[in-house]
Protein 1
Amino acid sequence: MSNRREFLKIFSSAILVPMAFGKAKSSEAKPRIPLAFSTLGCPDWDWKKILDFATQHQFAAIELRGLGGKMDLPALPTFAPDRIEQTKNDIRAAKLQIACVSSSAQMYVEDPEKREKQMADARRFIDLASTLEAPYVRVFGGKDASDKSPAPNDETKARVASGLRELGKYAGPRKVTVIIESHDHFTSSATLKDVLRAADSEHVGLLWDAHHTFATSNEEPEFTVHQLGSWIRHTHLKDSTGSGEDRKYVLTGRGNVPIQRQIAALRSIHYKGFYCFEWEKVWHPDIADPEIAIADYARVVGQCLGNAHACGL
């Protein structure tokens, strides 16, 4: 939607309802709206700036997807054994949560040696999430570069489901849920439903990247949420212009992605997770800087969900 006034008007009249985290008691501080942003959007920020910016703009959580442009989070000094307690103290002091710890592990891989590396990486991220008391670890279904098929075949879906089920068994005792992102070859509701049903684990769920199901699989948000809502644990939101795979990311409300309907669809199923902004600055360095884009998301979606303070009003 190019007219952001219209975008805000739709929300202010339709979604001024209690926040996902519930109303605060009169003697307590008002809870932050359940907004989050992914660190994928701010690859040049250090740890302190990430936390300070999140606090300044009234975010409730951050999603960890690399720091300083480096994606192997468990190997970074910030999360090393001798610093992890200080890092957790930093998060608590900022009154933030870690919404998700996002790995690059891909479950489609067939070669046993390569597959074990993917699984081992996912387990490392699960261990980190458990230490940080983060509820989710993201993994991908993935797709081999040589695979030109429009959708994964049954064998691939079975491998992905098996990997998710195995990781779920590892994650469950650590109070972590493994979530597959709607991405790559795994954006259609039919494909994701097959995989999630086959995984058949209470410790496996879905990260709904609402942009990809709309732009790649041409699904309306109400349909996707109706099909997959029972598995949705975490959500990525972003806007773009163009069509199909030929898209350019733009500030929230300035594109043609139906973000207002995506959020409304989530609210219709009483979604309790975070509305996370994934600004892909790492992969698209030409898009707006995070100081602009992340703050803008907090204003626009914050106002849409009825928190005037988060919108800077």
Protein 2
Amino acid sequence: MIRAVGELSAQSACILLAPNQSLSLVGNIWVFVSLVAASFGISVAFAMAGAWMVLPFVLLEMLVLGTLFGYVYLEGTRREMIRISERSVTLQRFRGGRQQLAYHREFLRTSLSVRVHMSHSEPAKVNFSGPEGCLEVGEFLTDGEKAILIRKLGACGLCARREPQFESQSF
């Protein structure tokens, strides 16, 4: 998901990037609770029939499933904020339900290049590159959303550049 916060202009902009998240925290909890109830109901029936060794494995299964549900939810709460000003472009990454700052990188606008790598075998990659380093932006976005991001960056005066190992693509 790409959302412009405020107005986009050639001088300044604020773009929020977030992965698609189909279920809220409450929805995730309801799905997990229903799976736990179904598994425990079946395992208790087997335990009452004499197959009590099913219970430890169901507990282990629910522990692994709960851990995976938590991991998927936390990955879905990632956010990237691109702030474009007259002098600099700032990329901030947030993680977790409380949106704790996980990463902050500032690029000088004059030396920043936006590189787009397109390939038939793998998803597109959008990179910010400059003397400050190279950083992939919006790795969780779909190719269509990355095309929208490139258009929004172009509206702000940040155009994709061709380089030998990267292929510039017009969207």
